[in-house]
Every structure is written in structure tokens, then in C-alpha cells.
Amino acid sequence: xxxxxxxxxxxxxLALAGLLRAAAxxxxxxxxxxxxxxxxxxxxxxxxxxxxRIDTLAGAGADVNERDENGRxxxxxxxxxxxxxxxxxxLDASANPNALDNESYDALTIAAMAGDLALVKLLxxxxxxxxxxxxxxxxxxxxxxxxxxxxxxxxxxLSARAHPNHVNNLGATALTEAIxxxxxxxxxxxxxxxxxxxxADLNLADRSxxxxxxxxxxxxxxEIAALLEKAGAQP
Length: 235
Known about the structure:
Number of strands: 0
Mean pLDDT: 92
Number of helices: 14
Low-confidence stretches: 8-16, 19-26
Structural class: mainly alpha
Order of helices and strands: HHHHHHHHHHHHHH
Strand content: under 5%
């Protein structure tokens, strides 16, 4: 059975968009093994999860917001390493939860990309901005979480007033990201349902002119298409 030109065009654009996003993901730069090995002071303590050492160093006047060569703070390093105790110790010592590294990533987006709900909640509780525009593509923690099907994180970010309709530099929203990067499984259905309940714009087209419902249909995501249809989305 031959497909019409319309669906074929949508599928080609979806594939290209996915490749672009995959390439862009490498812009998030965790420390290298060599950098970890060279770290001293708070950076070393953050990387190793040494909360008591952080307390001691911060109490002695160490700068909890110092930067390494890539603009990472100790908090960003602790987040990359997924060390919640170290992250909490740094936050308790007044580390800035909204600091950006040289690729414009904050700890919240890094935690969202890693699918670490506990760290996301810790950062939000310490004042991390769920509406921050982050990364070289002008994205957000919400878009990152939606694209990975991290439904619990999506809900936590939306509860913290993340913008459900923010559009990144590729023309993607959290909703289109969940469809284009997702597989239509239950976790992505939960993401879409959460965005619907948060009053995301269901008819906001991407740069190709394709709306979320059309994208879901083109990818054969019947359950997500049904959710969107029930909520009033237009093809």
C-alpha cells in the first residue's frame, strides 16, 4: 500500500528533527574522567557525594558558586553525578540553583534529562526556576523531560509552573517533543495527559506546519491521538 505525499513528508521531517535533537543533546557536557580526577575542594566533594566535606569547606568560606573551565558549578557537577546528598549540602550552603554552564544548562534541566525525580524535586524546593530557558536550543527542563517520557518529572515541573507552551529554537514544544521523540507507550501517554491537563496548546504547529494530532497519527500513536482528539485537538 502506497502512502500519500503528506504522511511521507511528515515522517521524513520527524526523522530529521529527531536526528537534530540527538545531535544537540551532546551539547550537554558532563565532566570528563580527566576533569573528575583533577577536581579539588568543593568540586571534588560534589563529584564524590561528600556532603560533610562540603559542609566543612563551605563553612570555611569556600565559594559554593565557583566555576570550572566549562562554567559548571559544584552543584551542576553533583547533579551530573546524581549525588543528592552533595546537592542538598550545596543548596543548604546557598549554592545558586539557577546557575548556567557554558552550554546554558542549569542543574534542573540536567536532572530532568537524567530522569532523576528526587533531584528535580530537591532543586525545585530550593528555588530552581521551572520556567527557565536552557541549553543551546533555547529549550527547558519540561521539554527535556517530555521528550524522555519522564511523566513524574513533567508533572512536578508543571506543578512548579513550567511553561507548557514554550517553543525551542527547533520549533518544538513539550507536547510535540513527547510525540516526535516518544514511542506512544504508557509513559508518553501520561506526559501528554499531564500537558493536556496543564492547558497546553494542542494546536500549536511545529516548523513543518504539523500539529500534534497529525504528528501522533503519522507515528501510529493511536492512544495519544485519541487523548488529543478527546481534548479537542485539530488535525
